[in-house]
């Protein structure tokens, strides 16, 4: 299914109107966890409200799953999955590597999605006819680079501390196999796979709204996204994205033992 690129831009613009005025001007940060730290801001909440309003107006019979304001009509064939600010920790730290994620699933399959970074003026989206970039340097179609060997690969994870026990040992071993390992950047690292800048991203414990929008952006650029078990990534979980099937298989062999 093709999704109108103009609708993607309208979503990105509506979210940016709520996030940008609040970026680096934060008043209050709430913590969603009684033990630990899971921040949420007014920018998260208002951006999601704006996105939901657009979707409800344009597609009143579609379902919505959002991080901040819950779900509606999840039994419908078409469901939009929203993370208004993926990378809230980066947002509250003033780092421009957060993004607005909005994806569309049809019967459970992610078919279209966008990642918008309004501070840098960048929009990454997949509309069913490939993956696209709009921003500095001008518009272009996105394509993964054809890295097949771990020794030549750049890999990202949010932080190795998310890997526990035996899995941490396997992650550390994987890190020794790649050319370059970097941390952080949340959704931005996944977008960089589609852009041909990064080769592997491994992140455990993701929610659907962390990954659904990014699946079609990576897949329609030629990449692959699965769980560590090799299954569908649409429901979240422990997620690996890679530029090529060969690289995906090589990384999983190390990760899963």
Automatic annotation (TrEMBL):
Q: Would you tell me the protein name for this molecule?
A: Histidinol-phosphatase
Q: Enumerate the cofactors the protein uses.
A: Mg(2+)
In which family does this protein belong, per the annotation? Belongs to the inositol monophosphatase superfamily.
The GO molecular function terms of this record are: histidinol-phosphatase activity
Q: Which Pfam families match?
A: Inositol_P
Annotated pathway: Amino-acid biosynthesis; L-histidine biosynthesis; L-histidine from 5-phospho-alpha-D-ribose 1-diphosphate: step 8/9
Q: Which reaction does it catalyse?
A: L-histidinol phosphate + H2O = L-histidinol + phosphate
Entry annotated with the keyword Amino-acid biosynthesis: yes
Q: Which NCBIfam families match?
A: his_9_HisN (TIGR02067)
State which Enzyme Commission number(s) the record gives.
Answer: 3.1.3.15
- Alphabetically list the UniProt keywords: Amino-acid biosynthesis, Histidine biosynthesis, Hydrolase, Magnesium, Metal-binding
